[in-house]
Specification:
Layout: H1 21-42, H2 47-67, H3 69-77, H4 84-112, H5 116-139, H6 141-152
Helix pairs in contact: 1-2, 2-4, 4-5
């Protein structure tokens, strides 16, 4: 008679599952896209909600970078050996980060002291960032579609 070694786990508790990083990344990206859309729309509706949504969006962008940091580090380390698609993604990501800096800074200035010229710059920075986000989505569309197909199974 073969007996199994004793475990400390109750037979009624389910086994812990590993976190699927791809699903987490896709979920954060989807939430971030919704937040960016909400931030853009709220600018025309209510200043308080715009500031709140924009702040959460910037925090989401930091989380997005943190989740993709291993890919970013590995890509930079082997920059000369990676395919053009990955180099484009890296450049696009850098441009996105650089576009979010003036967007956030000008938004903070507009929120603290209303300055019409800064407000116009902030609007232009938003449209630039939005355009880069759309290009980023288009550049990663195959990955997104594959994750959505996999999830529907």
């Amino acid at each position: 008679m073969i007996t199994e070694p004793p475990t400390n786990r109750s037979p009624f508790r389910p086994k812990p599952h590993a976190i699927n990083r791809t699903r987490v990344n896709a979920g954060v990206d989807l939430i971030l896209a919704g937040l960016m859309t909400g931030a853009g729309l709220s600018a025309y509706l209510d200043t308080t909600s715009h500031i709140l949504i924009a702040t959460v969006t910037l925090a989401g962008a930091v989380i997005h970078l943190a989740l993709h940091w291993p890919w970013l580090r590995a890509t930079v380390q082997r920059l000369g050996q990676i395919p053009a698609h990955s180099r484009r993604g890296l450049l696009l990501g850098l441009l996105l980060v650089l576009s979010f800096v003036p967007l956030g800074a000008s938004g903070a200035i507009v929120a603290l002291i209303y300055a019409p010229r800064v407000s116009a710059f902030h609007t232009t920075a938003f449209y630039l960032s939005l355009g880069l986000v759309l290009v980023h989505l288009a550049n990663n569309w195959r990955w997104i579609a594959a994750r959505l197909r996999h999830r529907s199974r």
